[in-house]
Specification:
The complex is a heterodimer of chains A (339) and B (618). Chain A is an alpha/beta fold. Chain A has a domain at 250-339. Chain A has helices spanning 59-66, 89-95, 116-126, 135-145, 162-174, 192-209, 220-226, 244-249, 254-262, 332-338; strands at residues 11-19, 22-23, 30-31, 34-43, 48-52, 74-79, 82-83, 99-102, 180-184, 212-217, 229-234, 237-243, 313-316, 319-321. In chain A, the strands form three sheets. Chain A has an eight-stranded mixed β-sheet, with helices on both faces. Chain A has a four-stranded antiparallel β-sheet with strand order 4-1-6-7, with helices on one face. Chain A has a two-stranded antiparallel ribbon with strand order 2-3. In chain A, strand 2 and strand 3 form a beta hairpin. Chain B has helices spanning 3-6, 9-23, 60-96, 98-112, 116-127, 131-158, 161-168, 173-210, 221-230, 237-264, 281-284, 338-344, 377-383, 395-398, 405-414, 421-434, 440-443, 453-464, 483-499, 512-518, 536-541, 546-553, 591-595, and strands spanning 291-292, 300-309, 312-322, 327-331, 353-363, 368-371, 388-391, 471-475, 504-509, 521-526, 529-535, 608-609. In chain B, a hairpin with a 4-residue loop joins strand 5 (353-363) and strand 6. The chains are: A alpha/beta (339), B alpha/beta (618). Chains A and B meet through helix 2, strand 8, helix 3, helix 5 and helix 6 of A and helix 7, helix 8, helix 18, helix 19 and helix 20 of B. Chain B: This is Peptide/opine/nickel uptake family ABC transporter, permease/ATP-binding protein. Chain B: InterPro entries: AAA+_ATPase, ABC_Ni/Peptide_Import, ABC_transporter-like_ATP-bd, ABC_transporter-like_CS, MetI-like, MetI-like_sf, Oligopep_ABC_C, P-loop_NTPase.
């Protein structure tokens, strides 16, 4: 155990890839469908890494692999120095105490038939976090920690609103005292005012418990608010990664720029956005374009882009971009927001 | 006691009575089941023999009760054994898949290939007739039914987040199966159980009737029916008793399992009752006589409209005005009543909801004024899709999956115009091109599932604008879409507005940023009421209601260190605060706010707020 070594990254993903081969017809040839390709990522204690991308970019698959819920086809995933694919089932179950997940749908992530107290206690009992006689008190403490009354333990999920359920899900994730939390779109299904409650809660917990967090979302504003480092994904690959202020302040990849321009803002520009709205849609992962995956929708694509997948090149300290024409550009709208 | 538990009483009592009678048979003062009385064969009901005597002069009542013992034991016993084995196989196969599935589910399915009666005959022939061989035969027969039901339900449940949560928590798979999955597959299991008990009783009767089940002279309902059949002409009543017992017991079990299923479901929503018992919403409406509208009348003017379900008010005194060419955003959180307000304008409110007050004056193409809230179904159908049309949130659900999209657009046109053949086809292609579907000549033949999410949304917009509506109601049309696709669809709406200058639009959304992008005016709703209204730029610049202010502050935009969260949650319609509905969550609330609901104030021309403290709100 390297509990004392806080500088070493807690979670290390190396060249992760996940293939979901599909077969057309009974005798058809299996067709490769890569949901995630060549993703390398490290997360240190107390750090929140945001993964941004649209549906189908592989961000949820990546989250599941980092949790050990899904095994990568290529590459390796290690947690606190231990390779997840080399672990036996009982070992994996033991390690999973330290990694927990918060899901998107607060209505689907809780068992409708059991009281929430029982569901939070599951983690405590499975991993013997506290002696049996103290389980009740610990559940009450966890509920208080996420801002719910302790009387909530006896009730069942349908008696709570979406925001409250998401707090319950967070309490359940915290029950095993994890070091690493994967939050897969935890606020996307919530109302704006409730979103803020949950975002603030996650922020407090990260600070108080020194958690490493992988925050998956398609909402750029939330990610920007919560995360120290941002990873932008497109069609299974990382297209840009770096410090939050750099990636959102002066995005280096044309896709990041387009994503920022497409995000509605309370202070919209003068309506000249029209040109910056991306044309077309995400290509099918079963049949990705040659070379740069983004070139079919890219406003600055040229012939060279079709030749090879561009490497993930550094453009600054801890800031990489996968584009042969990329470079920091300060968008007009970003300036307006700051002004 | 909840309503669903109360509903258990009736079938529960009957079932308990039946079971008790049958169990207590040895203690009841019954006549001897085997005591023959040949001289009195086929005697009708008498004081000594309440249900009469059979072909050997035996007492029918005692044979019925003792016979129930055999029939029920065999049917319920085999149903339970089969349920236990079948559920175990289905759970294992459905959860682990792969090789486990092969040896459990697929193996059990082989039994389904054999004709059921033949299988039962085979077992009984090998083991000889009698109660236990019959139980075994029926158990084998019914196990695959349970396996299949549980297998299907398990597959559905295993992918749900709460199961994944258990896995990620490191719970042992067997524990997940028993603790998490089993309770969630119970409802279909109970239904299956009631079907199996009924069917097992019938098969038991059948086999006994054939002489392969219970051995005479031990009574069983099947045997009784068999012997009564021979004497049908002489004593028809003899056939009635066992048949009644059989049918009554089966019905009771079906009812019991049905009710048990809804009682066990914690989310149980007690339905609105039979369709014909619901209040007829159409009956309350009188056909409105159209009157000439003023020349400068707005396109739509809703005044003090309320919507209620039974006596619960979901929308209270909402007022809203849409002028030609104007886009009004209706903003609010879930449960604010924004969608209901939109639905009421197209007469598409769910059956149980009714507009209980207020008016919604709409000015038609011909310059007539009609009240949408009072229009009968026929009147509103003439307007719907033609003058007023709607775009829904979930295009995948709103489009018919088995019709080509061209056909669906054509349908919308044909509902209001006499267009046929090539002219219709040309118009459909033109519409699809107008909403930005690439290659429309080919895509008219596509089914909804062949289109991407963004394309489907475009197709639905094409259906909505097919007849150049004058009022377009869009209910969260971009919420389910990705950012870059959402931007495309918002751009499409902006373009539609430019192309049809007279069209008014109500844009229902919860996303304030989208409002800022698309709308001219904004109406903010909270807990069924309009709390603020005004031009978008002004409202966002200087909100005059604490709720609007808090909503804007809670958007994670800009560099705020910490987001402003609104404490608490929206009150339920059953427990609305008596004063201002936002008061319990409001930072500005004083005693005055909790005492009386605030009246509408007008801070500036064209702006409305419903707050006592509007002057101090920033």
């Amino acid at each position: 155990m390297s509990e004392l070594d806080t500088s070493a990254p807690l979670v290390v993903a190396e060249n992760l890839g996940r293939n979901f081969p599909t077969r057309h017809g009974l005798l058809g040839r299996a067709h490769d469908v890569w949901a995630v390709r060549d993703v390398s990522l490290t997360i240190a204690r107390g750090e929140t890494v945001g993964i941004v991308g649209e549906s189908g970019c592989g961000k949820s698959t990546l989250g599941r692999m980092m949790m050990g819920l899904d095994l990568p086809t290529t590459g390796s995933m290690s947690f606190d120095g231990r390779d997840l694919s080399a672990l036996s089932n009982p070992e994996m179950r033991k390690l999973s105490r330290r990694m927990q997940m918060v899901f998107q749908d607060p209505f689907g992530s809780l068992d409708p038939r059991r009281s929430i107290g029982a569901q939070i206690a599951d983690g405590l009992r499975t991993h013997n976090i506290v002696p049996g006689s103290e389980v009740k008190a610990e559940v009450a403490r966890l509920l208080e920690q996420v801002g719910l009354p302790t009387s909530a333990a006896q009730r069942r999920p349908h008696e709570f609103s979406g925001g409250q359920r998401q707090r319950i899900a967070v309490a359940r994730a915290l029950s095993t005292r994890p070091d690493f939390i994967v939050a897969d779109e935890p606020v996307s299904a919530l109302d704006v005012s409730i979103q803020a409650q949950v975002v603030n809660l996650l922020e407090d917990l990260r600070r108080d418990l020194d958690l490493a967090m992988l925050f998956i979302s398609h909402d750029l504003h939330v990610v920007r608010h919560l995360c120290t480092r941002i990873v932008v994904m497109y069609l299974g690959r990382i297209v840009e990664e770096g410090p939050a202020e750099k990636v959102f302040g002066s995005p280096a990849h044309p896709y990041t720029r387009a994503l920022l321009a497409a995000t509605p803002s309370l202070h919209p520009g003068d309506g000249s956005d029209g040109d910056r709205i991306l044309k077309g849609e995400l290509p099918s992962p079963a049949n990705p374009p040659s070379g740069c995956p983004f070139r079919t929708r890219c406003p600055i694509a040229e012939e060279a882009c079709a030749r090879a997948v561009p490497p993930l090149d550094p453009v600054g300290e801890g800031w990489n971009v996968r584009c042969i024409k990329g470079g920091p550009v300060t968008p007009a709208t970003a300036q307006e927001v700051h002004a | 006691m909840s309503r669903s538990t109360r509903k258990l009483i009736l079938p529960g009592t009957i079932a308990a009575l039946i079971v008790a009678t049958v169990l207590l048979a040895p203690l009841l003062p019954l006549q001897d089941v085997r005591g023959m009385d040949i001289p009195n064969r086929f005697a009708g009901p008498s004081a000594g023999h309440w249900l009469g005597q059979d072909d050997f002069g035996r007492d029918v009542l005692s044979r019925l009760i003792w016979g129930g013992r055999a029939s029920l034991f065999i049917a319920v016993g085999s149903a339970i054994f089969a349920a236990i084995i079948g559920t175990a196989l289905g759970l294992l196969g459905g959860y682990f898949r792969g090789a486990v599935e092969l040896v459990t589910v697929r193996a059990a399915e082989i039994i389904l290939c054999l004709p059921p009666l033949l299988l039962a005959l085979l077992v009984v022939t090998i083991l000889g007739a009698g109660t236990w061989p019959l139980v075994l035969a029926l158990t084998i027969l019914y196990t695959p039914n349970y396996t299949r039901v549980v297998y299907a339900a398990t597959q559905q449940v295993r992918g749900l987040d709460f199961v994944t949560a258990q896995r990620s928590m490191g719970t042992h798979p067997m524990k997940i199966l028993v603790r998490t999955i089993l309770p969630n597959v119970l409802p279909p299991l109970l239904v299956q159980m009631s079907l199996v008990v009924a069917s097992a009783m019938v098969i038991e009767s059948g086999l006994s009737f054939l002489g392969l089940g219970v051995v005479p002279p031990t009574p069983s309902w099947g045997l009784m029916i068999r012997s009564a059949r021979g004497a049908m002409e002489v004593a028809p009543l003899l056939l009635v008793w066992p048949s009644l017992a059989l049918a009554g017991t089966i019905l009771t079990f079906n009812l019991l399992c049905d009710r048990l299923q809804s009682a066990l479901d914690p989310r149980a929503v007690t339905a609105g009752g039979a369709l014909w018992l619901r209040p007829r919403s159409a009956a309350a409406k009188k056909p409105a006589t159209p009157v000439e509208a003023d020349a400068d009348a707005p396109l739509l003017e809703i005044r003090d409209m309320s919507i209620a379900v039974r006596d619960m008010e979901l929308v209270r005194r909402v007022s809203l005005t849409v002028r030609p060419g104007e886009t009004v955003a209706l903003v609010g959180e879930s449960g604010s009543g924004k969608t209901l307000t939109g639905l009421a304008m197209t007469g598409l409110l769910p059956d149980t909801l009714r507009v209980t007050g207020g008016t919604a004056h709409y000015t038609t193409r011909e310059g007539k004024a009609v009240d949408l809230a009072k229009l009968d179904e026929e009147g509103i159908r003439a307007l719907r899709g033609d003058e007023v049309s709607m775009v829904f949130q979930d295009a995948a659900a709103a489009l018919n999956p088995v019709l080509r999209i061209g056909e669906q657009v054509a349908e919308a046109i044909r509902a209001h115009h006499d267009l046929e053949g090539d002219a219709l086809q040309t118009r459909v292609v033109e519409l699809l091109r107008h909403v930005g579907i690439p290659d429309p000549e080919q895509r008219v033949r596509a089914y909804p599932h062949e289109l991407s999410g963004g394309q489907r949304q475009r197709a639905m917009i094409a259906v909505a604008v097919a007849n150049n509506p004058r009022l377009l109601i869009a209910d969260e049309p971009t919420t389910a879409l990705d950012p870059t696709i959402q931007a495309q669809i918002l751009q499409l709406f902006a373009q539609l507005k430019r192309d049809t200058p007279g069209m008014g639009m109500i844009f229902v959304t919860h996303d304030l940023a989208v409002v800022a992008e698309i709308a001219d005016r904004v109406t903010v709703m909270y807990a069924g009421e309009v709390v603020e209204e005004g031009p978008v730029a002004e409202v966002f610049e200087r909100p005059r209601h604490p709720y609007t202010a808090a909503l804007i502050a809670s958007v994670p935009e800009g560099g705020a260190e910490r987001l402003t969260a609104i404490p608490g949650s929206v009150p339920s319609p059953r427990q609305m605060p008596s004063g201002c509905r936002f008061a319990p969550r409001c930072a500005f609330a004083t005693e005055r706010c909790t005492a009386n609901p605030p009246k509408a104030e007008h801070p500036a021309p064209g702006r409305v707020t419903r707050c006592f403290h509007w002057e101090t709100v920033t």
